[in-house]
Amino acid sequence: VIGEMKPKGTDPRILSLAAEVAKSPEQNVPVILLKLKEIINNTPLGSSELKKIKQDIYCYDLIRYCLLVLSQDCSRIQGGWTTISQLTQILSHCCVGLEPGEDAEEFYNELLPSAAENFLVLGRRLQTCFINAAKGEEKDELLHFFQIVADSLFWLLGGHVQLIQNVLQSDHFLHLLQTDNIEIGSTVMTMLQNMLQINRGGLLRIKGKTLHSILDEVVFKLLSTPSPVIRHTATKLLLLMAEFHQEILILLRQSVYYKGLRSLLYQQELGTEFNQELRQLTGLISPYKEVEEQKLHQAACLIQAYWKGFQTRKRLKKLPSAVITLQRRFRYKRAKILLKQNKQKEEENRKLQLQLQKQRAMRLSRELRLNMLEIVHPGQVEKHNREIEEKSALIIQKHWRGYRERKIFHQQRPSLTEYKAATLKFLAKCRKKKQLCALWQGLPELTDTRRVELKRQVDEYVRRHPASQITDTTSKELHAQAQEHLQHYFMGRALEERAQQHREALMAQISTNIEQLMKAPSLKEAEGQEPELFLSRSRPVAAKAKLAHLTTLKHIQAPWWKKLGEETGDDIAVPKDELNVELETLFIGGTKPP
């Protein structure tokens, strides 16, 4: 066959390559065909020489050899998917720009559709291997080979537009489009978009069922795929179909299968990066009334967007002051934490210094003691130790007594404060009453006019009320009696005021004593000077209490035979010399014993 179709002026590289393919075994043919890539790449693109090389490759059936290799199992080919992907590139480049001449019908009707179908089959195989692959590196490698095959197919379709209809009607392409993998789905969707941009009328030439399947898959990927890249590509595809094919637009508007598509697209508009394309698609498939409502909705959204932008810019202007406030508070808190840490460190250092001082003092005292023991005579050591012990005991007692007295004082401070406040309040009340009850200072001095007026009033009263005739002697006696009664009244009034003040002072003292006794601990729990709180200022009361106490002691200390015949209420005679003792008084609130 090669000898019959040998053209004139064949490139020697193609001729030698064809001879090598014919002589070599089947398993070495794919590797030999890879040399075509070097020949094509070394030839200038678009030159007549490249066209002549492609014609020679076609004439020597090297393209058919490539198709045969691509139809074989991958595991039987040397180099695996790497060799196959490079052969797809060689095949697509050889078929694009090729002028078959006399065999044009066979080339266009058989070879090119077979090449496109082989590419789709390879894509299906790569898709299956990609899904079954376990390692990430293997998946990346298979995805790279799939990209090469897809680019080779698109390069072939770009050179031969009539093949787009064959690809769209192929079941293999539909299976590739229906994949759930994001990477492969994105590649296939992009290739479909590029095919429709190249040949916009090719979509209407395919059968109705296939068209519905492709349209359903694109709508499904738009509404259910989480990948924004695939959704964006699906949106552009639907826009492309709806804009240039009125039948598809009517189908999207009126078909029962796409009844809720408008509402779903409206939901998809929120929070997407391709809102403009979605709004265009929604506007295309919506009736006029809904378009107007959508325009109003978009206008409202635009107004809201401007208002939100204004509010955001307003907040951004205030942001520096907020940041300054936040920084100031942060620095204050950090300074506070550092200050606290420094205080803790200082406290720890202080405690450490005190401990070291105590240790030094202890060592120094021990050294001094040892030195004194060396100096003191052996016979005086015991005496010296006794003196040191006595001094130490005195120091301990002094500190203990000071601690105890301070503790007692702190315990009695509230009661002393209350007593002092009550005393001050009572003295203030007494001073106020003394000022109110001051002696009568006499009437203010009368003027001559007032004296004449009073004399006139007296004369008028005497004229109207004439008195009985009283002698001068009787008048003088009555006057003397009145003066005497008045003197007795003023003297008794002063005594009564002093008695009232004395009673109030005694009542205040009794109330204070009762309050002190209520707050004082019981005799069993009393310690130190607390029993002194039970002493009384009243000498009669103290004497009676002393008498009762001595009586009880006498009765308790008496022998049993003296208690025979005595009753509980009998009084016991107590000698008077035992009562001549100094009665204790209570020191409260700074007052002194009488």
TrEMBL record:
Protein name in UniProt: IQ calmodulin-binding motif-containing protein 1
- Gene3D superfamilies in the record, alphabetically? 1.20.5.190
Q: Name the domain of life this protein comes from.
A: Eukaryota
* Aminoacyl-tRNA synthetase among keywords: no
The family database entries (Pfam families) matched by this protein are listed as: IQ
GO cellular component, as recorded:
cilium
Q: Which organism is it from?
A: Galemys pyrenaicus
| A GO molecular function held by the record | calmodulin binding
Tell me the lineage of the source organism: Eukaryota, Metazoa, Chordata, Craniata, Vertebrata
Annotated signal sequence range = none
Q: Is Transmembrane helix there in the keyword field?
A: no
**Coiled-coil region list:** 335-362
Q: Give the keywords, sorted.
A: Coiled coil
Q: Which SMART domains match?
A: IQ (SM00015)
Provide one Gene Ontology biological process annotation. Answer: cilium assembly
